[in-house]
Amino acid sequence: MKRVAIILLLLLFVSFLPETREFSTNMEEKMLPISTDHLLGTDYLGRDIFQLMLFGLKRTAQTVLVASAFALIPGLIFGLIAGYRGGWLLSLLELLSNLGLVIPSFIVALIISAYFGFGPISIGVSLGIFDLSTYAIQVATLTRKTREEEFIVMSKLLGLSTTTIFRKHIFHHIFEPVSALFAAKASSIVLRYASLAFLGLGADITKPDWGMLLYEYRTYFIERPQLLLWPTLGIFIFCMFFHILFDKKNPYHGEI
Prior knowledge:
By secondary structure, this protein is mainly alpha-helical. The chain contains nine helices and no strands. The model is unreliable at 250-256 (pLDDT under 50).
């Protein structure tokens, strides 16, 4: 739990980093190499790539936070209740989960971004809503299995309240697999957000995203391949960040 709190605080800190205007174009400084003034060099418009990467990190972290707020929190609540109580709520979650499998979230995100504009909030909400049913059905399944355990039955016989059983037993028992699911979903959000920006939705050069940078720099693949390297590394490292910290099945989890 402490690890999760630290990571969430880190994401919040990154999401609210002050905006910078140092990535404004300057044709007199285009294609400069790495230096103390420009830690990652400059691009074909003379923009500082390090500042572009930081701004892309901020917008990506915002998208993950928004999507997780709309998916993980409600998914936990509905999943715990449905899995513990069963009945019509569980059937409803299964129906929503099946609908989520046939409706392409990526296409819906394209439509929403075209209507409301491309940004962390609009994309985060659209992606988060589609991930909600996945969290809920996974939590419900885990809760149904856990409630049949002897320690849960004994807790009921001892007269413990449902809230106490949830907080001290069930939630603690399902925390690890839910964390692994969060790692997979957060990484998926990073990739989907970058993909949407790559398609040209993030075309505002004053608000650069990693996917947009890949789209801009694609024509320099042979001449300046390092331009493509930085946003690619940013996407890869941020995806691995969630797996390493939240998925205990990976071989590096215990080393952090």
